[in-house]
Amino acid sequence: MNSQFTVPSQEIENRRLKIQKEMVRENVEGLFIVQRVDLFYFSGTAQNAFLYIPVEGEPLLFVKKYLPRARLESPIKEIVEIQSVKEIPGLIREYYETLPAVLGLEFDVLPVSEFKFYGNLFGGRTFVDASPMIQRLRMIKSDWEIAQIEHTADRSSKIFDYMRRNIRAGLTEMELPGLFEPFARTMGYGARLRVRDYQTEGYPWHILSGRSGGIVGLLDSPASGEGPSAAFPCGGGSKRVVPNEPIMIDFNFVFNGYHMDETRMFAIHGMPSKALKASRAIMEIHNEVLGQVKPGRTLDELFQTSVHKAEALGYERAYLGPPGYKVRFIGHGIGLELIEHPIIAQGKQQALEPGMVFALEPKMVFQGEFAAGIESVFLVTETGYRLMSKVPVDVFVC
Amino acid sequence: MNSQFTVPSQEIENRRLKIQKEMVRENVEGLFIVQRVDLFYFSGTAQNAFLYIPVEGEPLLFVKKYLPRARLESPIKEIVEIQSVKEIPGLIREYYETLPAVLGLEFDVLPVSEFKFYGNLFGGRTFVDASPMIQRLRMIKSDWEIAQIEHTADRSSKIFDYMRRNIRAGLTEMELPGLFEPFARTMGYGARLRVRDYQTEGYPWHILSGRSGGIVGLLDSPASGEGPSAAFPCGGGSKRVVPNEPIMIDFNFVFNGYHMDETRMFAIHGMPSKALKASRAIMEIHNEVLGQVKPGRTLDELFQTSVHKAEALGYERAYLGPPGYKVRFIGHGIGLELIEHPIIAQGKQQALEPGMVFALEPKMVFQGEFAAGIESVFLVTETGYRLMSKVPVDVFVC
Question: Has this prediction a pTM greater than 0.90?
Answer without folding.
Answer: yes
